[in-house]
Design a protein that fits this description.
The structure is a homotetramer. Chain A has helices at 42-52, 98-110, 184-195, 247-260, 311-314, 327-330; strands spanning 16-17, 29-39, 56-61, 64-68, 78-82, 87-95, 116-118, 127-131, 137-141, 144-145, 173-181, 198-204, 210-216, 224-228, 237-243, 263-270, 277-282, 288-293, 307-310. Chain A is an alpha/beta fold. The first copy, chain A, has one domain (29-146, 170-330): 2,3-Dihydroxybiphenyl 1,2-Dioxygenase, domain 1, CATH 3.10.180.10. In chain A, the strands form two sheets. In chain A, strands 16-17-18-15-11-14-13-12-19 form a nine-stranded mixed beta sheet. Chain A has an eight-stranded mixed beta sheet with strand order 3-4-5-2-6-9-8-7. In chain A, strand 13 (210-216) and strand 14 form a beta hairpin. In chain A, helix 2 packs across helix 3 (184-195). The A-D interface holds A 51-52, 155-157, 163-164, 166-168, 170, 246, 248-249, 252, 255-256, 258-261 and D 51-52, 155-157, 163-164, 166-168, 170, 246, 248-249, 252, 255-256, 258-261.
């Protein structure tokens, strides 16, 4: 049977999907491992992640604190590091095997990019550190030590890495990183081609260029997002997102923010794109943090078509009608205003 | 670096995971596509799935009604077929590509099992129909037609196949099938070796034999489950499960059951194994149906170790202490008492 | 012990509450009974309340349909009546006894207002019909027939008037009426003095006049609300509100609205005043309808002080920062633009 | 119009409610103020209420710690006092005014009971201390000091007494006390006649005697409950209950209990009687604590009839079918086994 072309938009889909390979094989990059945040006020930032977000400290080393969400099977989900300016440091992606890691290193090198092997994180083996075309630091690794919870954090069930904390929101995992990039299309093409990510949704503006694109390595609908940086800067962060168990967790998080002075930028509401229920707050260092909940939505279809949103569609606001807040287009870290 | 042996239980894990390939590559079987239920009272069974569960009818054909959950991108999630006895008919698994399908057919044939190609379902291409060693019908396919919602069910957002219904619980997807089997170990070995499933949790009884085992093809923590049939029968169903968006949906479902006369067998409560929040009801034909919610729990680790529960651990009951109800061990379909 | 003056704002409270009687005795008006909506499109409006809100029809009579929420112990919670213009008709308040009813009639007459006895509603005895100073029709009654659910709506538990419906949101009760009024202070003084309502919160603008005031007859924090009508019109409706069981019901309601074309004006979000979680939609006749959830918040203190919000405080927006939408200040029914 | 007799069971209600006064006027006892728990391990008990339940400490005095839920407008909701045996100490009921307090003192004395005036609690004026016929200590008071939150617990909104805590479950209020009593009918008749409580539901066993009865002073459906003590002891406690904002809070509470070693006796599930969603745990001193959520259910009807459950109805278990756990009938404090 001949391949049938796949229209870009789901709403016009009516087709018999055939042999067309529409995605790279799952699994060379298994999932987002952890991310590093820079902050000029590391004590306050760490306190925010412990008291408000409900992470716990795995270990500390010099200017860096290694924090973990309760359902992370690895040593750390987040590294908070002192620096003059807030912003995003390393994003580490765990590969499925050493072979998968080597394949991805080769694929990145084939694009002309360079990198280097380091071994500089606790409980993690070799990392190959490189950059995306916009200058964000990316690291690929496979070797990792499974987390063994200390006695006071021992879980009640053996299929869980650590006790769910009674303090703060108690986010389950680091969910995704949303970068700002000067050229979204070029940068995401790199992520797709060299790292094997799959784009699931994107915004194409009226002049044809891509304003934002969502990529996944998993059956979550996105792991790495790139949004256009209107300032023309490079290497900046839009936000880091953590997944909660429920939407009620996010409503409770909004109440806790209100009562503890955490700045709420926008939400809770539901995104039209990807349909995620969200709340955006700022951590004390100035980085934007999202608490997100996708309900049980997954992308299981091996040939799920890329959904493209137009400028007119985006003008309708979020899913239930909330208009996008102005600062969403202007605030990134480091700040460049 | 040398491979470090992986202990079977997560609680005793403290290791550096290395090059050890611990799973087959993801993706030959992409996901559970749909399942077929037999019922002696098809009108009542279909009404149950429409009015209570919130499915809609995609099409009808003779003794079969093709029903769909609102977030299914394919034509149908469930086939309800008239037959003298309730029970499970075909379980259909969608493969990632035609090549993947052919590889799996070859792998099944390599075990000595036989099958045949058919083309007997609406909006689906070639299916290769076979059986697991316990006699449950399995079908593998790749070609499928993406669902195009009729105008009255058009979704509000273009990244969603169909409107969420206002009627009933409104389950999002067919989540998993839980079979009864005379010999769980042999049957699941077939599913693991020939179909490429990955076991995530299991019960090993004191005499060493496997009492139940959970397999996944995805990053959901299970898709196909086999539980020992204490009657020694073969080919029977324990339950068919549908995922809700929230735990609150399940609490609401319990209230709706109470007020509309749907029989609740047990729940709502939380499973210790896999941690799923659950409610078990019987549909009018006698098949057990689970409404389940995993929160945002996923198995993203490419080397997540198989978790084994002992007889003593199982005796503790469910996660929050609920004792397993007696009928859970005795009721299956077809009935053999 | 001498009475200690009660500061108006809770945040400055630090006092020993003594013998000061700060409220009329609870109970002459027991609770909000039901309300009447006018609509130019009664079929569509009734369908909205059945299909989307989850009410059921108790009876019909000429141009009026009597609808009920599932937890109402009386015959009807809402009367939908055909009229050229949308708007609010009668608001009926149930008194605790015949003596209480007579006391309230006398108190209203003592203000110079007039009324008349009618017996024009199904399952309800004598109603005394009058108007508030802004011209909204109010009715007082005591005699009422307890609802006996028909067999198909019989509840599963005997302490519940009717089965919870599987269709739509399934709101529990009519929660409150929010009127627009030309002169909020005068109108609410009437409701407080003549009907025995208790004000719980209010907005006092910088020039000293009252912009809105919330009154209760119960331990719910409000039952009747008056907001200033910027058009200077009289007798208009801002919105009618129905209480859901959970905040999740409201999030589900937002999704159902999105998928079925119900217009969402604003929300879901949390009010700063009264802290209610809310969603505002328009029914097809043009009236604004709120779905609201107060969690388990009650005003149990017999001397709970009136909380006053300033213009500056209101400028901060809703509880989590949402700015009040422009149409919230301009849209009322009947329309006067 | 002549009074129409009110059948005892709601399901047989079909009547025109007329002038019949069916309840004492609301308001002499305004609401449950606070309760006192005895514990042999006060440090552990206080830690349980802080870390797990989410209360905060208002003050300490000798062997007593005064704790408060975040939405309590008074100084304390719970007093934890060291004693050799666990059990219930004083239950304090706030009266609506000094006159109401004096009326109730007179009414209690008219039954032949005695009491004495004390002034022994922080931020509370005169208390009149007496006992119910089963020997539980009851206190009536009116004067109370409104809570002024310290800066670190200042709420985000001025209509809230204190910030909602980020630690533990964060229960909103002390909801009810459930006593054990040798003779339920005699004891509750006292509470109804002398204190002005209203019974809303009861269990009448086949031999005609009352097995349990639920009383309210408010529009919550119950505040004080008495259950028959099968041991024939007197003055014992079945449980103390705290209300959460949501059912999700209770599911989260169950997970926190599982991970922190708090003993879960039964639940989460929904009571048939009063329909409350519940979770029962034991605090370290041995007292049973309920976390409860009534959704938005209230008893607003001034003539809501007493609902009586039979022995056969009780045998059906809880609302969704959970059988009542054996220890529910045997465990009380102090222990008498």
């Amino acid at each position: 049977m001949a391949a049938i072309p796949v229209p870009e938009n789901l709403t016009s889909l009516r087709r018999m999907v055939a042999d067309t390979p529409t995605r790279p094989p799952l699994g060379d990059v298994a999932h987002l491992g952890h991310a590093q945040l820079f902050t000029p006020v590391p004590e306050e930032t760490v306190a925010f992640f412990i008291d408000y977000m409900g992470l716990t400290v795995a270990s500390r080393n010099g200017d860096s604190t290694y924090l973990r969400t309760w359902d992370d099977y690895e040593h750390h989900s987040l590294v908070v590091t002192r620096r003059d300016q807030p912003g995003i440091g390393r994003t580490a992606l765990r590969c499925s095997s050493r072979e998968a890691l080597d394949r991805r290193v080769a694929a990145v090198q084939a694009t002309g990019a360079t990198g280097q092997w380091v071994r500089d994180e606790p409980s993690i083996g070799d990392l190959w550190v490189t950059q995306d075309p916009d200058g964000h630091e990316l690291a690929l690794y496979h070797e990792t030590e499974y987390w063994q919870a200390p006695a006071e954090l021992a879980p009640g069930l053996k299929n869980q890495p650590q006790a769910k904390p009674g303090q703060g929101v108690g986010v389950r995992r680091l969910d995704h990183v949303n970068y700002l990039a000067k050229d979204v299309e070029t940068t995401t093409d790199f992520v797709i081609d060299a790292l094997g990510a799959r784009p699931t949704e994107q915004i194409r503006l009226d002049d044809g260029h891509i304003g934002a694109r969502w990529q996944t390595f998993t059956q979550k609908s996105y792991d790495l997002v790139y949004t256009e940086d209107w300032t023309g800067s490079q290497g900046r962060l839009h936000h880091l997102a953590f997944a909660t168990d429920t939407r009620e967790d996010i409503l409770r998080a909004a109440d806790l923010a209100l009562d503890t002075g955490v700045f709420i930028e926008t939400g809770p509401h539901k995104h039209a794109i990807q349909q995620t229920f969200f709340l955006y707050v700022y951590e004390p260092g100035g980085n934007r943090i999202e608490l997100c909940n996708p309900l049980t939505r997954l992308v299981l279809a091996p040939d799920w078509p890329l959904v493209t949103w137009t400028e007119a569609e985006r003008a309708k606001g979020q899913a239930w009608g909330l208009q996008t807040i102005e600062s969403f287009h202007t605030h990134g870290t480091p700040r460049v205003d």
